Amino acid sequence: MSTSTSTNTGTALTPNADCPLPHHERERVQLGHGAGGRLTAELLESVILPAVGGCGTGPLEDAALLPSYGELVVSTDSFVVSPLSFPGGDIGSLAVHGTVNDLAMRGAMPLALTLSVIAEEGLPLDELRTVLASAGKAAREAGVPVVTGDTKVVGRGAADRLFLNTTGVGRRLPSLLPSAAGARPGDAVLLSGPIGLHGTAVLSTREGLGFEADIASDTRPLHRLVRALAPYGPDVHALRDPTRGGLATTLNEIAHDSCLRVEIDEAAVPVPPAVAAACDLLGLDPLIVANEGCLVAFVAARSADAALVALRALPEGAQAVRIGHTAEGPAGRVELRTLVGARRVVDVPVGEQLPRIC
Amino acid sequence: MSTSTSTNTGTALTPNADCPLPHHERERVQLGHGAGGRLTAELLESVILPAVGGCGTGPLEDAALLPSYGELVVSTDSFVVSPLSFPGGDIGSLAVHGTVNDLAMRGAMPLALTLSVIAEEGLPLDELRTVLASAGKAAREAGVPVVTGDTKVVGRGAADRLFLNTTGVGRRLPSLLPSAAGARPGDAVLLSGPIGLHGTAVLSTREGLGFEADIASDTRPLHRLVRALAPYGPDVHALRDPTRGGLATTLNEIAHDSCLRVEIDEAAVPVPPAVAAACDLLGLDPLIVANEGCLVAFVAARSADAALVALRALPEGAQAVRIGHTAEGPAGRVELRTLVGARRVVDVPVGEQLPRIC
């Protein structure tokens, strides 16, 4: 997931009077700065954008348009997941899927990937081989070549085993112009599959919680789902994959950027029983847990049924469902209609408790 | 510097019978695997290329052609330099220059950069601000926008402060088609500036050697030098910036890929006195020390003088010199005519002793 998911949060940024940390701690990088929630947005707004912005190309995005080539988009992601392998995937496949999916959420099919390796001295070569082979396999399965790379080695203790970066260039499907600011009142909100699998799979493996037998990461490429939506072109208003910060963050970003209210039906959101159990144990809301294999589509009501059928026609969309709709204001609000009929506001997490899940 | 400088080494790869390490150590990542010399080539050939290659686009390159867009090239680099700041630059400016230069060595002007951050928990935000501002400034000075980014945070001890990745997309100047395989017998070998500054500046700062007052990194963008060579188009046969592995590695790569012999005149290679002194102290050959602000151009003899004038017309090429020429075989050999008139063969370092200089 890249920075733009955070630039899109609708939260007041700095100074953060609510921050419970003492001042000198606020002046250091915190784990929550990388979690995709409000702290990430703060870091972006107060540190990163002022430093590297101002080049005349507007805000950072999941996948940015390439200057002079309007049909091309580019996206970058670094991967620091721990452990390197987990049920359903590893850092190699995750790195490929993550970048392919960021391109896809701009309506683009992947043209080329780059792969950069930072390895810690002492990492077994067999392990490096395994995850890179997994990256290669994921790229071939997604139909995208790895065209160039880079390898750096740091001394023991200077990195935790292995970090990868993938950057991708994609070409937009001409009929699709999705944007986080493109949703309109009355849109159907579609979700392509169950939530919470990736974050709980990684966490359970790392912490030895015992859910590993029942939960596997959903990491997979989503560009074919996006291509399946191409026939509904201008009716596909917004697309996003709810990675860091989970479904809650994604819905808030789109509600904010599109200046509308999103209403979600809790009963319609598919949460696998093992994910629900793991979240119960950990005190986590499945809505804020990262996913790596589903997407949210905001589609005009008239095309929603057909779009759902198109998603379900692919294996990765077989469990696609409609989870809610959009409505006129209050702009930026996400409401959940709970199982007992109450409504609660779904917020962006400040800095959730799942470090290094991607 | 990216992987291709290593794929181009003309050395027998695995198994490496000369390797002094016991077998079980050879099966782990070593610092030398990241040094740009023979060990890097081994890692690429035995681990990385078999894993991610086979996508039908040929060998990894410093900057690869983008499929379907022959005029566009893409290049990626991760930066792990320690310390983060050094005389003449910091990890931010280095990350921008490194990728701009990799694009330039394929004859391309930069169109867009991505910037990905991996930060260690506890890094002072002021320090992050400083190096990112430096990256932003370097990008503006190079005339290239940073169009997208990514931010990850890892816990204390899981990374050494800060790593950056930059990936760039560039557009080739139509008249230039340089290639490491493009040099021809009789070419002049031009060098745009003195060698050894970057590696010795970083090393001296890190180790407190006391040369910091006299040596500053040469980190700078080189694309304008390349543009200055455009009028000599087809006569500009090969371009490369001698980063990791230094001038020795670069010359060996081109000699190997172009199947010819390179003859260098030691007296003509500019080594600043402070660099020579630092190398003496450290027992290093300046020819293997990394540079970040000079390039080597292999130019047809008939255009060599004019190309040298064009390089010297820019501040970053003011000290450009002709350091030698190419000749028919033995293919892949680099010979140095020493100050006393002897000849010695210049080899690719196995895994040089300058970790984390970029």
UniProtKB/TrEMBL annotation, chains A, B:
Belongs to the HypE family. Pfam families: AIRS, AIRS_C. Residues 184-335 form the PurM-like C-terminal domain. CDD domains: HypE. Residues 1-22 are annotated as: Disordered. One of its GO terms (biological process) is protein maturation. This is Hydrogenase expression/formation protein HypE. Residues 61-171 form the PurM-like N-terminal domain. Residues 1-14 have a biased composition (Low complexity). It comes from the Bacteria. It comes from Streptomyces finlayi. InterPro entries: HypE (IPR011854), PurM-like_C_dom (IPR010918), PurM-like_C_sf (IPR036676), PurM-like_N (IPR016188), PurM-like_N_sf (IPR036921).
